[in-house]
Amino acid sequence: MLGIEAMFSHFDFEVIIRSLPYLFYQGMTFTLLLTALATLGGIVLGTLLALMRLSGFALLTVPAAAYVNLMRSVPFVLMIFWFYFLVPYIGQWVTFSSRPMQVGAFASCLVTFTLFEAAFFCEIMRAGIQSISRGQVAAAQALGMTYPTVMGYIVLPQAFRNMVPVLLTQTIVLFQDTSLVYVISVTDFLGAASKVAQRDGRLVEMYLFAAVVYFVISLAASRSVGLLQRRIAIIR
Amino acid sequence: MSAMIEIAGLSKWYGPTQVLKDCSAQVAKGQVVVVCGPSGSGKSTLIKCVNGLETFQLGRISVDGISVGDPKTNLPKLRARIGMVFQHFELFPHLSVMRNLTLPQIKVLHRNASEAEEKGARLLDRVGLAAYAGKFPGQLSGGQQQRVAIARALAMEPIAMLFDEPTSALDPEMIQEVLDVMVALARDGMTMIVVTHEMGFARKVAHRVVFMDQGEIVEDAPTADFFVKPRSGRAQLFLSKILQH
Amino acid sequence: MHYHWNWPIFWEISPDGVHTYLQTLLMGTGWTLLTAAFAFIIALTFGSLIGVMRTTPFSFAVRIGDIYVELFRNIPLLVQMFLWYFVLPELVPRNFGNWLKQLPNASFYTAVIALGLYMSARLAEQVRAGVLSLPRGQRQAGLALGLTLPQTYVYVLLPMAYRIIMPPLTSELLNTIKNSAVALTIGLMELTARARAMQEYSFQVFEAFTAATVIYIAINIMVTFAMRIAERRIAVPGYLGFKPQDAGH
Description:
CATH superfamily of chain A: MetI-like
Radius of gyration of chain B: 18 Å
Shape of chain B: globular
Mean pLDDT of chain A: 86
Order of helices and strands of chain B: EEEHEEHEHHHEHEHEEHH
CATH architecture of chain A: Orthogonal Bundle
Number of helices of chain B: 9
Number of helices of chain A: 9
Distance between the termini of chain A: 51 Å
Structural class of chain A: mainly alpha
Order of helices and strands of chain A: HHHHHHHHH
Helix content of chain B: 25-40%
Largest sheet of chain A: none
Oligomer: heterotrimer
Strand content of chain A: under 5%
Number of strands of chain B: 10
CATH topology of chain A: MetI-like fold
Number of strands of chain A: 0
Radius of gyration of chain A: 22 Å
Largest sheet of chain B: 6 strands, mixed
Shape of chain A: flat
Low-confidence stretches of chain A: none
């Protein structure tokens, strides 16, 4: 088709190939590292928040619920701005320093993403914990186990196993959300592609390439999760 | 007299499994035929083939001379002339009882609203539920819902009615009210194929009983003959099991 | 702490010389709501269409629906916005491309389309889930009465499916409002962009972002409240709905 040929007749594959090392060694490693660490931190904090919400003590449920609802009411972009400016002050407060702490871009992003995603992981874990039947808890307690033991050995392990597909899906969402660090000019994969695009004047090539890469990785990841889900279902 | 419903050499496969094996039967106008058999015998599949809700690979089905499997047949039009009553009633929960009755009349038969409502009201009265026109299905009991479902099918003025285990999902105390409606329908001369375990109903109004097992029609006999001396061992076994209680 | 608080900053005139900072924030809110509203309409339209296609017995339609959903779900929203805003004008015939670049409020139209299509993939999933959760007999009963397949969808399946998915639909509407903030990267002066601008010019970081946060929370509460009323209004008497889970954002 003539139209498509005309569209891509000036397509510069060279710029993509030349910048591959930069894109992947600088950009993608940032993206993947942020995704991995924020996921871990988010799950840990999220589980904690979930336990707080389920504890039944107003002192714990109210702040946890308020936190989760706040994070879920506000755009991620706004939160990125908030923490970009807030983290140095928090660092100052926590270290009793006299000046706002200098925090690197990665650290700031890590804090932001962990705290933000924790709210979503909290809701996932809450659903997972609540899906474990009361009978399990009753049986464990009848055996004389205390609450921490019941949680740690009976409920949480089962809840995690049930929630693995959903948690992984949320991780894929996180992976895509890392692109938003663009708004504070941090160089993740998209940021790197953008830099090359603007420096070499090759917006079309770089953005299309970025889209393709995100697409392939996300699709592969979600297909894998689907496969995993099917294998778990069989084992059950 | 040509049959109202003719099934000839019907065979159907779900993938590698054959669920209907060379089934043949005829239902004359005004006849009531009961289809029974153990679960998995293909009874529901058979009657769903009659109005094209299920497809089939081999054989021929015709209703009032119109071939069901023919790609040129206008299925919606044909289905409008055949009434079907489902095991789980399948009333439309978001519509009131009256609207359940009038919607198909208006949209399929293109009747106007007042005609449809008048017909609906008469049918509701006929099934004993005139006072429920404004209620919603969720507010009715199972027996009431099924009676409305029968009224809904009748509103289309069908030439034949298909019943797929109409009382199987009902609590015991509600079965009779539905069977009473079906008996009255039979006595009024409706052509009916009824898949059911209710042998009392069969004995009362069925002209013939068709016994199916594992996708085949094993026996097809006049009612009296079937109950007194079923010819096949499988039918005898089945009868002995269900007539016990 | 060296931060100097100045709450009355909201009543000071912003750099545009005409509006106070508060007014600029409210203007931004207007753009946020407008963008989200139009985007959601697009999302609902396309999402319903694709969702329905994926529940038909036609494998061709299902495939197309699947590809559509995978395409829009696996590319980050920000990248999709860049594609529409920066890449599309370059790929179309020169004249059309130039016209696109000169279009006033180009970032608004781009944001609406990009956001709308991104959310439509999510809505397609919800609509599909809603239709599939209905008993199989409903479709059969509709067809058995002589309704055509489109009629069965319109009069029997979709009315119940939409009621069933009201909770996740509300959640997606809120997501649409939140995701509109991403459009600040292509120049849309919505609420977050205005808050950022206020921060950049006045250096009153926390006042600016607090105001934006408060406004988003207020919007959230009002929309949730309105949807809950709507849910109750259209509820079917005697019917207990099924509530699918909502996750992600």
